[in-house]
Amino acid sequence: MILDQTLSLEDFLIVVRGGEPVTLADAARERIRRARAVVERIVDGDEAVYGVNTGFGKFASVRVGRDQLAQLQHNLIVSHAVGVGEALPAEVVRGMLLLRAQSLALGHSGVRPGVVELLLALLNVRAHPVIPAQGSVGASGDLAPLAHLALALIGLGELEVGGAVRPAGDVLAELGLAPLVLEAKEGLALINGTQLMGSLLALALADARTLLGTANLAAAMTVEALSGSHRPFSAGVVALRPHPGAVAVAGEVRAFLRGSDIAPAHANCGKVQDAYSLRAVPQVHGATWDALAQAERVLAVEFASVTDNPLIFPDTGEVISGGNFHGQPLALSADALKVAVAELGSVSERRTEQLLNPALSGLPAFLAPEGGLNSGLMIAQYTAAALVSENKVIAHPASVDSIPTSANQEDHVSMGAHGARQLRQIVDNVTSVLAVELLAAAQALDFGGLRAGAGVQAAWERLRGEIAPMERDRYYRPDLLRVRELIVSGELLRVAREA
């Protein structure tokens, strides 16, 4: 991929998860050079410009001499790299490398082209800076995490290569890459940005899209297992309240149910209506669809943005301090998605209750053959309930908090990275909740003898190709983990959609 002015979510995923190599476009290199020329003129002149020849944050009024500018940038990186906690996953770090390079490539930061080229070199050879997960307050961007990223560029800190963590200087030497000697403005340009928030949110959004489709499939399978009505998913119903998400979800559920032999068999059963967790799937899941679409719009803007400070304007020679580093747009999106994705888990657990409760399903309690001797999926629902409860706590918006920093110079922050990390946890939790529902729905379908709708039938057959029906109690955790794998890989959803 050639890095220039635009970067889509699909481009991001192809590089971050797919390993596509990235090269810097010639046009981007020229933009970078033009902005760098402005910085060089400032260095040669007498004007005090924040971040170029002054201190940082509360020290913005302290002028730094020309002979100390390189030391100023070095000091910035080593002093700001004070994160704590577990190391971020490699894919999150890869996203940070790509997004930081993309922002710098837009040509308003004042770095040399070699800075961007080193970021891309590490990305391409899968040498990932070791970055602690905790320490960002979401303005000025993700300072501490990005300082750890920059630390590796100057030969300090650590790099992870092939699962092994080693001193960055040693790895760079082996790769034939010279560590950066930072010049004026470059340290600040590397750490002033929203790239941790952006990477976390982008990866969570991609996973949540798969999760939503899987939730639609799980709901359709539960509807079939309980001989539920298909009519609430009709185009006519959602057309009377046509939120885009509701329309899309209803359409997908109809596709999964197409050709069902189960629905006609109980058309005259006398049941008036199903529980909300079944018949309101288009409205509940659809609201999540809409939230994902909004987050994707936010990321599209962010991926084409310069989040540095100060900003260099090569056409006029101006250098302007602004607030593009503030993570509020991403923070609010992450918090909205936390609630939206958590709700997929909440309603899924209620559908699992419909499957396991004999008073609601008409099926054996907990879907257990010889109930009493066997417990069936009784405790699997406990796990789902525990995860749903956990989600209710961590879905609390991180962005409602702000703690002033830097002697009140930076007096409002977004806490966006905190919220985005919580979002990743919620996505993971809901994956397990849906796995429980799918296990239960597949077992419930085993009690019937009719062919389900095309997508449901294909998914059930895929599950049964991996997981045997429950004939007596067994160690169920491996089954649950295998369903999780089929969800995360997108395999189960793919099979259903292609049916």
Q: Which SSEs are present, and which pair or pack?
A:
Layout: E1 2-3, H1 9-16, E2 23-24, H2 26-44, H3 69-80, E3 84-87, H4 90-105, H5 113-124, E4 127-129, E5 132-134, H6 143-153, E6 158-161, E7 164-167, H7 168-175, H8 186-191, H9 195-225, H10 235-239, H11 244-257, H12 262-265, H13 276-279, H14 281-302, E8 311-313, E9 318-320, H15 328-356, H16 358-361, H17 378-394, H18 416-446, H19 454-466, H20 477-488, H21 491-498
Parallel strand pairs: 1-2
Antiparallel strand pairs: 3-5, 4-6, 6-7, 8-9
Helix pairs in contact: 1-4, 3-6, 4-5, 4-9, 9-11, 9-14, 9-15, 9-18, 9-19, 11-14, 14-15, 15-17, 15-18, 17-18, 18-20, 19-21
Give a written overview of the molecule.
The modification 2,3-didehydroalanine (Ser) is found at residue 140. By secondary structure, this protein is mainly alpha-helical. The protein folds into two domains: 2-193, Fumarase C, Chain B, domain 1, CATH 1.10.275; 200-498, Fumarase/aspartase (Central domain) (Fumarase C, Chain A, domain 2), CATH 1.20.200. It has 21 helices and nine strands. A hairpin with a 4-residue loop joins strand 8 (311-313) and strand 9 (318-320). Helix 3 (69-80) crosses helix 6 and helix 14 packs antiparallel against helix 15. The longest helix is centred in the middle third of the chain and has 31 residues, at 195-225. It is elongated. The two termini are 33 Å apart.
